[in-house]
Amino acid sequence: MKTIGMIGGMSWESSKMYYQYANEYVKENLGGSHSCKCVLVSVDFAEIERYTFAGQWNKIGEMMATCTRQLEAAGADIIILCTNTIHLVSDYIESSTQLPFLHIAAATGQSIRSRELQKVGLIGTKFTMEKDFYTTILTKDFGLDVIVPGADDREIIHDIIYQELVKGKFTGSARNKCTKIIEKLAAQGAEGIIMGCTELPILIPEKHLNIHAIDTTKVHIQKALDWAIS
């Protein structure tokens, strides 16, 4: 088994799910007492948040490059970034290592294609919903039709993520607000919903929805492990 290198802490609420899903998937596939071989570098999310809202993406990129080099030195065989939004600076990671890097949008696109879906809704931070670093991979590499909520609904989801979810606050009120937005996307023809923030599947498990939900945390780590245990 190869060793997964994880850049985490964005936020740690979802990073712990990466570790849980990783070990569950290895156990499911290899049985016995097998567990995931991995190394983790975790950042202080307050620093990431400060640079994010200041628009200093280069600072975040430099931090991600440093984390990547630390993982490589620790023996990682593949790098994954345990967040959706910060893939905006994934080029810093790829340029800092010769190791394979699995982009979360690529893993997501493969999962959607395996479900034979064509039109999907995307929810996450405003950065993920409004910038093209994520949707371009889904549309150009996988030929998907991607729709996002309207401006007011994007603001609602964005605020819930940064004011509640990354701080470990998961409430019924927030779940209801997000579910209503998802229902609007379904009414516009979305066949599935991309949970494009790694905290969103914690807030809204698929059982609460009447539509396919793509848990980006789960599909990301599972695709990395498919490579690691093949």
TrEMBL record:
Report if keyword Isomerase is assigned.
yes
Q: By its UniProt entry, which Pfam families does this protein fall under?
A: Asp_Glu_race
SUPFAM superfamilies in UniProt: Aspartate/glutamate racemase
Instruction: Write the protein's name.
Output: Aspartate racemase
Which keywords does this chain's UniProt record carry?
A: Isomerase
GO MF term (any one): amino-acid racemase activity
Family to which the UniProt record says this protein belongs: Belongs to the aspartate/glutamate racemases family.
Return the NCBIfam families for the record.
asp_race
